[in-house]
Structure formats: C-alpha cells, structure tokens
Design a protein that fits this description.
Layout: H1 3-13, H2 18-30, H3 39-52, H4 55-65, H5 75-88, H6 92-105, H7 112-126, H8 135-150, H9 157-184, H10 188-201, H11 208-224, H12 228-248, H13 255-270
Helix pairs in contact: 1-2, 3-4, 3-5, 4-5, 5-6, 6-7, 7-8, 8-9, 9-10, 9-11, 10-11, 11-12, 11-13, 12-13
C-alpha cells in the first residue's frame, strides 16, 4: 500500500520479542497522527480535506485549529468550516452546535447571517417523514422565521419562505393523518376536530381544503350516530365547513364531493325523528 505499511509488515517477519513488536506497531500507528504547527496550517489542511470530500478528516484538523485558542486570525474561519463539515457529513446536531457557537462567539463577523441560515438548514435536513416526531420540523420553521425577521433584505428570503411552506405542509399532513386514524376508528367527533385543526393551523397549505371536506364528512357521520337533539347541531357544523370550503377555495377540485356531502346533510336535516344508536 505504501512504504509505511511495508515497514510495519517487515517487523512481523523479524525475529524480535513481543515487546519490540508492540513498540514497532505503536510507532507505525502513531505516524498517522495529524501534523500541524500553526492554526493556519491546521485550517488549510482542514479546508483541503473539506474540498476533497473527506469531511471527517476535515473536522479533525479544524478542531485542531482550536488547540491555539478561539481568538487567533483563523479561529472564525475554522469555526464556520467546522460546522459546514459536520453538516456535509450529515452530523446535523454537531453542525447545529457549531453554527450556534459561531454566531455567539463571532457576532460581528459578516458571515453570521449565512451561518444562521445554514443553522436552519441543519434542522430542515433532519426533518423526518410526516408520520414521525416533528420536533426538528418545528425547530427549522422557527429558525427560518428568525432569519426572515433579522435579515429582511437577504437574497435568501424567498428560499426561506419556500422551505417554511414545505415544512408547514408536512405538519399539516401529520395532523391530517391523525384525523384519518380517528375516522377509521369511527371516533368521528375527534376526527372532525382534528380536521378542523388542520385548517385552523395550516390554512395556507395544500391540505386545507382536504381538511374542510374531511370535517364535513366526519360531522355528517357523527350526526348519523347521534340523537336528534344533538344531530342538528352536528349537521350545522358540517354546513359551516361546507361554507368555508366553497368561499375560501372556489376552485378546489373537491367541490363536487363537497356538494354531494352537502346534499346528504340537507337530506338528513329534513328527515323525521332519528332512529340512531346514541
């Protein structure tokens, strides 16, 4: 592989004691340690490894730059590149810690805005499928919103807004999925409330009109299982969601389904005393 490896192998063929062999192996292993004499050298080697795509080795050199403290000429550069190396290596929590440290220690650095945006991206990268816990999704939204409020003239504002929209859509999908689960279990009241929560919280997402249709259907089914005195109240709630749907989303592809449900609601409202079970 290389001369160092060949020298190590030659030690195995020599008739030496186990102690000498151990020392030889230790010397061979030790020769692979990172070498740098100044913070500039550590940073330059970290940058070279970063550009080569060896992000793990880059982090080792960049951490080494801090052996010389965090106030030298290369400290800020090392700190920011360390965060970027961790993010490139998909070590997002470590990256978030280093971005945060950069913004706190080097507050006057002109790259703080970039660091704050990249901090938001680390949580965006960690945002999982909608079925899973969405803590990082919510953190990403908060970070993007902070960025927008602090740097309103940034060229990244539109991208930040687009990412917020994407993340809010994921949260809406999770809430919608919860409502669907309630509906499958015939827990229609809980389903209706959950569908309405999708609209109330995420009215600006693609799930908003689906949620109103879902609430209509859930209230209708809930009414069918209700005594007459409570039935009318629940049918009116279904009507309210129909009115919201047609007024707020007049071009929704769901209007035909909504109209069919509305006809069922009106028919049930006009029926005589209910023979329902509860």
């Amino acid at each position: 592989m290389n001369r160092l490896f060949t020298n190590c192998l030659s030690n195995f063929r020599s008739p030496i004691t186990l102690l000498i062999l151990a020392l030889s192996l230790s010397a061979c292993a030790g020769s692979g340690r990172l070498r740098y004499e100044t913070p500039e050298e550590a940073y330059d080697k970290g940058l070279a490894e970063f550009e080569e795509g060896d992000f793990e080795k880059a982090t080792e050199y960049l951490q080494g730059a801090f052996d010389f403290g965090r106030t030298h000429q290369w400290a800020a550069d090392s700190q920011l590149l360390l965060a970027r190396s961790y993010r490139a290596n998909e070590e997002y929590l470590l990256a978030a810690n280093e971005y945060t440290r950069f913004t706190q220690i080097y507050r006057s650095d002109p790259r703080v805005a970039d660091a704050e945006y990249e901090l938001a991206l680390t949580y965006f990268d960690r945002s999982p499928r909608y079925e899973l816990d969405q803590t990082d999704t919510e953190r990403a939204i908060v970070q993007f919103q902070l960025f927008i409020s602090r740097y309103s003239d940034s060229s990244l504002i539109q991208d930040a807004q687009n990412r917020i929209t994407e993340l809010r859509g994921k949260l809406a999908r999770k809430q919608f999925h919860t409502a669907e689960l309630y509906e499958r279990r015939e827990a229609y009241n809980a389903a209706a409330v959950s569908y309405e929560a999708v609209f109330d919280r995420y009215y600006d997402t693609d799930m908003a009109d689906d949620a109103l249709l879902g609430a209509m259907n859930a209230y209708l089914e809930y009414a069918r299982l209700s005594v007459r005195d409570r039935q009318l109240e629940r049918l009116r709630l279904a009507e309210i969601n129909y009115d919201r749907l047609i007024q707020i989303f007049p071009d929704s592809p769901l209007l035909k389904q909504a109209e069919e449900l509305y006809a069922d609601i009106q028919q049930l409202m006009g029926d005589g005393p209910s023979t329902s079970r509860s």
